Amino acid sequence: MNSYDVIIIGGGPAGLYSAFYSGLRNMKTKLIESQPFLGGKLNLYPEKMIWDAGGQPPILCQDFKQQIIQQGLTFEPTILLNTKVDFIDQVGDIFCITTNDGEVHFSKSVIMAVGGGIITPQKLPLTDAEKFEVTNLHYTVKNLSRFKEQRILISGGGNSAIDWAVDLLPLAKEMTLIYRGDTMKAHEAQVEKLKKAGVRFCYETTISSLHPDAANSRIEKVRLSDEEIIEVDHVLIHHGYNQDASLSFAGQCTPTLVHNYYYEADTAGKTSVPGIFAAGDIASYDGKVNLILGAFQDAVNAVNSAKQWIDPQSEKHAMVSSHNDRFDEKNKQIIAGMLGMEKV
Ligand SMILES: Cc1cc2nc3c(=O)[nH]c(=O)nc-3n(C[C@H](O)[C@H](O)[C@H](O)COP(=O)(O)OP(=O)(O)OC[C@H]3O[C@@H](n4cnc5c(N)ncnc54)[C@H](O)[C@@H]3O)c2cc1C
User: What is the pTM of this model?
Assistant: First the structure.
């Protein structure tokens, strides 16, 4: 049986930092992520600027995501993508974690870093829409510059759709916003700003059909529910998210839930089940900070608690990184790189 010291469920900020920190603590680590990519919710707002990650100058979310992925891989944990954890059981001291492919993974401890569950954007319910996702139908805005001087149709009435419109305002040639409701749900000030700038708003309107160009590769025209046909260069959709939070436990190892979803935890990341820890947005305790920096702190606590659980003689905390011999070899490589040498 190939058993791990810790299996981390979820590859968002909490899971990635847990993977880094468990490596720092010499733990054999596996991280399981249901999406085909790491980064968790950071994949939902790649174009946004992050200002509040400690010590980090303002940075585009997609760049920050790359940094935390790289850091999470520092000690080469085993990473499984496209793999959803369905069921957790415990036999003796070992947790048995069943994934959607029928595999069972074994570990002495588990860190639940499942955040808001598996979040995917709600797609346009139109046949053939999917094929345009590689060209000009978008569910996230990854790169603002590609919309320069373009005619853009945005569908959605919430804050995220309006934020896209505000970000694209200085760049777009023409912008139309459509929403199925009769007023936008987003902040009024932002909506007013767009109206003043001449953005066209169509209420109680949806997309009826997409019409491709001659090569059948890009959306050229969109027919709206009021039969109007508009020409577009790009179509952006923000209709909210689907959330899959399904995950079950055998009776004897079911952590206590709060509000039917979050895991009740203490500040050391301990849930009601010894050996199962919680980190990041999924953890609920007094003073919990639902931000990236909160996820990092939770990860440190959860890993330290997991380490103590599997080895009660171990140190309660890891040594600070500047004194930690896990970095000796890596520091030499970094310094050699700075000095332009092969080795120091
Ligand atoms: C629009 C928006 C803007 C934000 N802006 C900021 C900001 O500026 N600064 C800031 O600090 N925070 C910001 N946040 C909050 C921040 O993104 C979250 O606090 C952070 O992502 C939480 O990390 P996490 O790892 O706990 O959860 P998540 O990021 O949600 O990651 C959880 C991961 O677990 C995976 N998962 C779930 N269930 C399973 C399962 N059963 N099996 C396998 N994998 C599973 C999911 O696919 C996901 O990848 C923002 C959030 C949003 C939505």
Answer: 0.90
